[in-house]
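ok trying this again, last paste got cut off
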Amino acid sequence: MDYGMQILNKNRLNQRCDYVSFDDIIDVNILKDNYDNIHNNILDIMSTTEDWQKYLICKTYSDDEKFENVNDQRFTLSLNDDTWDDFSYVTSVLTELFGSMFAIHEVQVFWDAGGQNNEIPKPSVGAHVDEDNFIWLKFNEGRTLCILKKDETERLGYTTQVGDKFSYFSPIGFFHDPPKRGNGIAMRISLRSRWFNHENESEKCKKLIEYIKSFSYKSKIATGGKEDKRLPFIDYSECVSNEGIQARFDTWNGFYFYETATDKSIILSEVKK
């Protein structure tokens, strides 16, 4: 069975798409023009905050580790209800982009303290599905996202591709992964379900929601077994999932479930002969 998300463009005779991007809807220059200021703002906060690790998704350093002494300064930060005020410049840029911060659950910031460089991103060997619905944004060319591309010439019918867009919509069931190499700033905007409904009064968000709904979606596989984050305009009738297990794809195994706790995989793909 094909477990890749089926995305069809309703305005183009249900043409199949590998992804949905907002680059023609949002002002991409807001992203490009704010790279330096966001980078310097985060660097200043991390350098001057004694308990700088409180912003990290995963704490991997000793309690007394100084930020300036960390060699590989490649971090993922969590911005949420507890830390919005500390990163007011970041939230101001997102407010300019979306019109408001309404129903944004969390912003994960992928940030390299050393800034961007000339490394060219390369495709990852695999991809995965997350448990929530989010928008991916990049602020420079190098810090991009890999997506799953339909390719009938491949043994498994798919390949991973380095995305060239500044924005992607990633609903539950959409395969993606960070590329190999590539530095700079990207953000993962996790959205609550009410972001997508009439409660969202931002005109900019309404345009995004209208554009999102101009496509039809069929999710074939999900990470985890929770259904409370599933969206009413997405078809989950054929969706399979396992509680606490991540849905993945790679070029060796195809589609499979992976359980971190046991390091076990459940292979799902039917390899093309």
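PB: full thing came through this time. The helical segments are 28-33, 35-48, 88-98, 203-212.
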